[in-house]
Design brief:
heterodimer, A: 189 residues, mainly alpha, 9 helices, 0% strand, B: 201 residues, elongated
Chain lengths: 189, 201
């Protein structure tokens, strides 16, 4: 199995910190986005990303290349992020989603500026952050990281059908939060 | 109504797949034309799909690589010290448990029967240095009595229970990180030893 990071991984495994720094630079965007997607907080994402790379560095001697480095990195990343989220859950508290979702209206006849559009997308992604963990993860991996169903199934050790079902349940849950322009008077959402 | 339920189930995948014009979706497409409620639902799904597919990426701090490498160098420098980094509320109960287990193993009679004479116990199969053997003589004399084992088991269970209870009650992120680091170092050491052995072989 050819791994685009194979050479850097081999050198890093041998203790080459320059190679590992290169590996971090190459992959940090995806790791940070994964952490941000799961934790929904930039500072926490920054901190946990560093934690992920520390774990990867110390665990590299045990990485035998059975899977691609990126798959292994995602696995370490997901486990670290979920652990951190569990710790933070009580500290973060439960945020009332209505304030965010109120802004999330479907595009209609109103003139939409780029800023408003961006805010809507952001509002939806914030809503993703409040989905149950199993749904949130598949959404992040599918849309944000553009992994295939099969890759997600392997990564999360789930059957392919369950991945698809989780994605569809998540889409359904998000669709219920969308307010179309003609429904504006129906309620807060 | 059954068609609405079916539509609700199938629409997310159908829309995510780009609403393909396949024959198997014909019923769904016809229903979406006819049912206002399901059409509105499909519209919401399209909005969700569009928004999800245009994820606004966030960028990490530009100095993140440097921060990571600084932490790695700092961790490497600490090296052996990490063995001592386990917090006291983990290391003390763990040591107590190991000590208690060790004492139980050392003072255990070769045969569990309490009726074994003391003299025979002294000729036990495990050979300890004479100083320790002498020190253990009174313990071994006690071992022939049931009350000794009952008391010893009680002390052992209480110590271990209190230690583990205290440790779990004070469990925090630092403990977890300490254990994780310890685990990583042990795995690293085992891998290193295994590699050396294999190369030597």
């Amino acid at each position: 199995m050819s791994d685009p990071y194979g050479e850097l991984v081999d050198r890093s495994r041998g203790g080459d910190t320059a190679a590992f720094a290169e590996l971090v630079a190459e992959t940090q965007g995806r790791v940070y986005n994964l952490a941000y997607g799961v934790l929904g907080n930039r500072e926490e994402a920054q901190d946990v990303s560093q934690e992920i790379y520390l774990r990867v560095w110390f665990a590299l001697p045990r990485f035998r290349g059975d899977a691609k480095f990126s798959t292994w990195l995602y696995r370490v990343g997901i486990n670290t992020c979920l652990n951190r989220r569990r710790q933070l859950r009580t500290q973060l508290g439960v945020v009332d989603g209505q304030e965010v979702l109120r802004k999330f209206e479907a595009p209609g006849g109103d003139p939409l500026t780029a800023t408003i559009e961006r805010e809507r997308r952001q509002a939806l992604w914030e809503a993703v952050g409040r989905l149950p963990e199993k749904y949130r993860l598949v959404i992040i991996l599918f849309y944000q990281h553009e992994l295939t169903y099969r890759e997600i199934a392997d990564l999360l050790s789930l059957p392919l059908g369950t991945v698809k079902a989780h994605l569809n349940r998540a889409r359904q849950a998000l669709a219920k939060l969308v307010r179309l322009p003609q429904e504006a008077g129906d309620g807060p959402l | 109504m059954a068609l609405c339920d079916q539509c609700c189930e199938e629409s997310p995948q159908y829309i995510a797949d780009g609403e393909p014009a396949l024959a198997r979706h014909q019923v769904l497409r016809a229903h979406l034309q006819a049912c206002d409620r399901c059409r509105a639902y499909a519209l919401r799904l399209r909005v969700v799909e569009d928004a999800l597919r245009t994820y606004p990426p966030v960028s990490p701090d530009p100095g993140m690589t440097l921060l990571v490498m600084r932490r790695i160098v700092a961790q490497d420098r600490r090296g052996e010290e990490e063995w001592h980094l386990l917090p006291w509320d983990v290391s003390v109960p763990a040591l107590a448990l190991i000590l208690a287990l060790g004492l139980v193993i050392v003072s255990m009679p070769p045969q569990p029967s309490p009726a074994v004479p003391v003299q025979e116990l002294e000729r036990a199969s495990f050979e300890l240095p004479s100083v320790i053997g002498a020190w253990l003589t009174p313990v071994r004399a006690l071992m022939s009595k049931d009350i000794f084992w009952a008391a010893w088991s009680g002390v052992f269970a209480t110590t271990a229970g209190l230690g583990i209870g205290l440790s779990l009650a004070n469990w925090n992120a630092l403990n977890r990180q300490g254990l994780d680091r310890l685990g990583d170092r042990i795995a690293h050491a085992v891998t290193w030893v295994f590699g050396r052995t294999r190369r030597a072989g």
